[in-house]
Design goal:
about 240 residues, binds magnesium ion, about 40% helix, single chain, binds adenosine-5'-diphosphate, alpha/beta, eight-stranded mixed sheet
């Protein structure tokens, strides 16, 4: 409790669900893959930010997460690092069987930033593949990249659904999904696409939802699709 107060982190779980894992204030203590540790150091991150200290331990424990923190607090690494660790824990990857993890983001620019960060933290991992799937770029190039087999997809919802419908990718092995800036995705009208994805995921999967604000639409989505989530708030958050 003391640590959370110092980190300015507020954590909530439902009455009947297990308690949230405690925050961990150093990357070394998170038991990350050595190659990820190396890339974190290379990237120049020496200590986790508040949201990272709490969200990463929750995500690494396998729990669903509803994260709410202001811009610039370091949410990207908070989900990117556990996502890569999750992928490494899966059985040896068979290329072409479909991606293991998916990040949905509202805009092309944001997706590009996220993809960059995924590549940063998987830099030392031989044959780890990340694809970016956004509008405004050549769909045929994306098709061949997806069909060659990737581990992680970072996408905007509309373009990703296009590829699913064309049979260029599949949800059948996705066991880790992140919705980044979910409130913005809803504002932009992506709710049907998001629901389409969430509804068709394999039964066993972990969901992380990040949102700057907590409007009722986000609460509804969380109640429908998250399983005993840990809700994390850092700093002031408006509804
Ligand atoms: P958010 O998604 O919460 O708005 P970002 O993930 O974009 O925040 O991170 C904001 C900035 O902080 C980025 O420049 C990022 O590289 C930097 N950053 C994130 N985590 C750390 C860390 N642990 N140590 C140093 N810098 C960090
Ligand atoms: Mg962000």
């Amino acid at each position: 409790e003391d640590v959370r107060m110092r980190l300015n982190v507020e954590v909530t779980v439902a009455l009947d669900s297990p308690p949230a894992p405690a925050p961990i204030e150093s990357f070394e203590d998170m038991l990350l893959h050595p190659s990820i540790m190396k890339d974190i150091a290379y990237h120049g991150y020496s200590r986790p930010t508040s949201i990272q200290a709490q969200a990463m331990t929750v995500a690494l424990s396998g729990r669903d997460l509803l994260g709410c923190a202001e811009t610039g607090s370091g949410k990207t690494a908070a989900f990117t690092i556990p996502m890569i660790q999750h992928c490494l824990a899966q059985s040896p990857i068979r290329r072409g069987d479909g991606p293991l993890a998916l990040v949905l983001a509202p805009t092309r620019e944001l997706a590009q930033q996220i993809e960059k960060e995924v590549k940063c933290f998987s830099r030392s991992l031989e044959s780890f593949r990340t694809a970016i799937v956004v509008g405004g770029t050549n769909i045929a190039d994306q098709r061949s990249e997806l069909r060659a087999g990737v581990d992680v997809i970072v996408a905007t919802p509309g373009r990703f659904i296009d590829h699913l419908q064309q049979g260029n990718s599949s949800l059948s092995r996705i066991s880790f999904i992140v919705l980044d800036e979910a409130d913005r995705m809803l504002d932009m009208g992506f709710e049907p696409q998001i629901r389409e994805v969430l509804r068709n995921l394999p039964k066993r999967h972990q969901t992380l939802l990040f949102s700057a604000t907590m409007p009722v639409e986000i609460e509804t989505l969380s109640q429908e699709y998250l399983t005993t989530p840990v809700q994390i708030k850092v700093g002031k958050v408006s509804s």
